[in-house]
Amino acid sequence: MVDGEPLPDDNAFDEHIIGLLDEAERIIPAITFERQNNGEAGRIHYLATGPKVTYDPSANLASGEADAKPFRTVALLHEVMHVTCDRQYVKPAWAAADLYGRNFHIPIALTTNDEIGQSLRTQQDIVDTNYERAAALLSRDSSKVIGKRMRAYINERFVYGRGMPDVHYDTVLFELLVYMAMNKAQETPTFKYLEKLSTEAAERRTDKPPRVAIVVGV
Ligand SMILES: [Zn+2]
Predict the structure, then answer these.
(1) What is the pTM of this model?
(2) What one-character-per-residue DSSP string does 37-90 give?
(3) Ligand 1 centroid distance, CA of 183 (Å)
């Protein structure tokens, strides 16, 4: 038992989030879940036998700024999105073993590690710019529903995402959108911009042919 907050009915969410939850539902049967007592709400392990997600049903965000039950729910959705990203984003087969969980397409024609590094850095900078805009927007967003704790949580997750934007983007956006929607913050400018970013990412990971990340205006 995960001991997270149950997700509300679909009618509490808009079409984009419902689409993400459907995407999560489709991939969940491919994942093994295992309880641990390590204080981590969720962690993905890419094993030769398939993806495994470990979780601790007593975990909370280290800073304590998130509400524990909804946080545990969205932390697991975050991990599930890692698996979706790993499956949807393409990468050159010869380098795939070292590129698990990346949330960008890496052109499959690339032939050297330097080229791959360059592609990752370029796209990382782009999503970092998007994160930067989101953080600036949040600091200007005086919506009452974004209380002190929710603001601290969102900011903390931005910092987390920006630490490794090549693996933490689609995941963090999904987590934040569901958390904010569960706390009725969908009408805020911050939510709307995060949804724009998440929509761009969702289109990118499913569109063919693969395309690179783009900067998204507020
Ligand atoms: Zn993650």
Answers:
(1) 0.94
(2) -SS-S-EEEEETTEEEEEE-TT---TTS-S-HHHHHHHHHHHHHHHHHHHHHS-
(3) 22
